[in-house]
Specification:
heterodimer, A: 203 residues, alpha/beta, Rossmann fold, Arc Repressor Mutant, subunit A, 9 helices, B: 758 residues, D-Maltodextrin-Binding Protein, domain 2, 5-stranded mixed β-sheet, 51% helix, disordered N terminus
Amino acid sequence: MSLELPVYLIDDDDSVRRSLRFMLESYGLNIIDFDSAEAFFPAVDLTLPGCALVDVRMPGLSGSQLHAELIAKNSPLAVIYLTGHGDVPMAVEALKLGAVDFFQKPADGAKLAEAVVKALEHAKAHYQDNQYLETYQALTPREREILKLIAQGLKNQEIADNLCIAMRTVEIHRANLMKGMQVASLAEMMLIYGRIAERLPLE
Amino acid sequence: MYFRLYYRPLSAIKNHPMHRLPRWDLLAQYGFYAFCSIVVLVLLSVLFTGDAMAKPQDHIEPSVSATSIPLVAKSALADETSYQPNYGSNDASNDQPNNELIVQSNNESYAVVDVGVLAIRGYKATITRWQPLMRWLETQIPNSYFRLHPLSLDELAKGVETQELDFVITNPGQSVLLARQYSLSWLATLRSPVNHGAAMQVGSALVVRADSAYHTLSDLKGRRLGIVSTSAFGGYLTLVYEAQLKGIDLPRFVGDIVPLGFPLDNLLYQLGGRRFTAHASPNIASMNSNVDANIDPNVEQATTNASPDISPSIIANPDSTLVPDLDLNTHHEVSQAAALDAVVVPVCQLEQMQREGLIDIADYRVLDNQAPAGFHCQVSTRLYPNWSMAKTNRASQSLAKSVTQALLALPEDHLAAKAADSAGWTTAVSQLAIDQLLKDLDMHPLQTPWWHNAWLWVKSHQQWAWFVLGILVLLNVYHFWLEYRFSRRGRELLNTQRQLSENRMLLEHAQRIAIVGELGASLSHELNQPLAAIGHYCHGAEVRLQRGSTPEELQSVLTLIQQEVTRADSIISRLRNLMKKRPISKVPCFLHELIQDTTPLLAYEFERHQINIGIHITGTPYLQPLDEVGMQQLLLNLLKNAADACVQQRELMQSEAQGTAQNSATHQQRYTPTIDIELDYQQSQILLTITDNGVGLSSEASQLMQAFYSTKLEGLGLGLVICRDIVDSHSGHFKLDSAVNGGCQVQVSLPRKADGVL
């Protein structure tokens, strides 16, 4: 279940951090806390799914800087902001960056727990996507090309014509494709392609 | 919003310089002026009364008239006449010289000559001694009547001054004093009957009892010394001079000097030793001894302690002299004998009394006898010229010439010479030795007449004296008027000052509120943190209870909540102190604790702008009386200023970076806003330095310290003014300067004060 996933709590104020941990643990969440972003980064594998509860204002790296770093590293970690007294521009900025939610302290425990669970789901999906993307990137350029054409709804003959290759060659590529993507059906492969397509760099 | 009128306690007002002024100087000033006025007024009143007195005197002619008899002499005469009948009724001694005197004084056909004589051994003894000389002069100068006036030292001087005497016969000390003050011509000096008729026969004998342990003058340290009078020449001054030549300051050397006054006989009696009553002597002292022995000890007390010179109580008891007590040789110990250790008498006094049968010379001893060979009296000092006779201004030259001739013609063995205990008269002897003595004793008449000259000047320049008085009176009036106005102004000033200090209080308070307002975000953050924590703990506990946790498991959370409540409370009370209106009160505290208490109020502010703050404390902390709220306000103002400067600097750099549009990241990274608080506990002062690396000073420091001058859009321009005020109230120094790194540096030095002393 997603509840097993780690929730990283990063806040410089000891009492707030400890009280949040106490509250969230009562919801059965797996909390790991840090008093600064600098302590967080070396201790955590950013490629694994999880949730980061981040205080916006901290000495050293701030919450938003931490978030930016995570995005830069394409980490599946989902970010929830916590703030002493949030204002609208700050919240908008945070959500634009892709934060899952934005909470003002004192946060309502139930809503926060709910948001954390949602964030974990989110993170898991993000992690999955990352996995698919990795698989996709392991394909040969010809295979990626054929996959794109398949997604466009072309038949094998049309693909062969389009690429000026033999029909037989297209079929071999297609079989390799199915194997590389670790999917059983064309429909499943199309579903995955649809999810990763939006995150693919424009070609 | 309203301000309640707020009174600062008196103690605060007392710190004002006006109150530190000691009012004594004003008092002294008043006193001086009053003194001056009084002196001038007294001077002038004397001037007028003196004039009034002087006028009738001008009309007194130096001739004989009923009114011209000197006051003293008159009283002496009155005494004489008053007891004249007594002699008649009690005794057959009608042929006493006194009777002649009275009878002849009424005779208008004679030229009356008044002769003043210093009465050293009492009135009667003086008459006895000098009356024969008067008779001799009368026989030598036809149609003259010489009237004898036995007088004391002061009376003699007064008699000469008021021109009521024609001639004076006095001892050498007196003679020099008189001669210097008044115009006197010396006619003749008395010759001693012994020592081949030498004219030098005045000096002192320092007498002790024969059985005493004293052998020289230096043995008398701290003892009681009896003398006749401190102005007596033969009886005292000569000995003082002799002692001075030996390096002894006599008045300080001996323990106590007791002036017993005339007659001299008393001195020896007081010293002790046997006393004999001599019936033949007309001496007043012998009368006394009779009184002592037979009548009433109280009378003795009265007479021996009576004032010097001619004591009425002595004279009023002539009856008792006639108590027949002739061969009794009363041996009488004087009760006060032990009181005196030594006495000073004129030379030959001892021998004279021995001759008169009053004492036994074997009972006494003279210290430091230095009588020259052939001199038959014992003497402790060198000898000075004998008694002399002088003429005053009143006597005519021709009379003086006749008198001088008569005196010189007096045979050695004549009754008049013998009665005066002399061998006739010789030409006047030089008074130089006496002059020298008086000068050395600082008693010379010429040494003190400055006031006299001044007095004469004032008298001759009356209009100027008036002018000066007028000016002084005017100045006084003006001065008091000024004083009155000054004190009224002073009160007004004090009122204004009190109002000012009240206003200052209000202003400070308003500024504190303003800072708290500016700190709003920071404060709400600080308060929000513990409240959030409490909320989280509560929610967590609630959820756990719902999920089956036991209350025991959750007990520890309550402690955590309590901690958070305490934290919130401390922030609130810190704020409450800052916003309270209250009088300035200084309590001993550690400045660094105050700083550590204050910085949290700004922590959020620093965090928000990512300003690094460093606190460095050096030296050994000690307690210092501080106005806590004031110091907090000072710190808040300074730190807020520093933070603002840092933020401005960052914005400036950002806009520059955007302007160049290059290396914006490196620019921004390079700037780290920093505020350093350095606190140095030095031996004599506490030095607080707050340095920032912000934009630095935009104006002159002096301009920035002015009220209502601000470089900030929303600034009141009061922060620095109030800071300096607060530092001043701690008698410290406030310095605003540019820092080395381009920022601003504020230095506050507070002189160390003893622990607990406010």
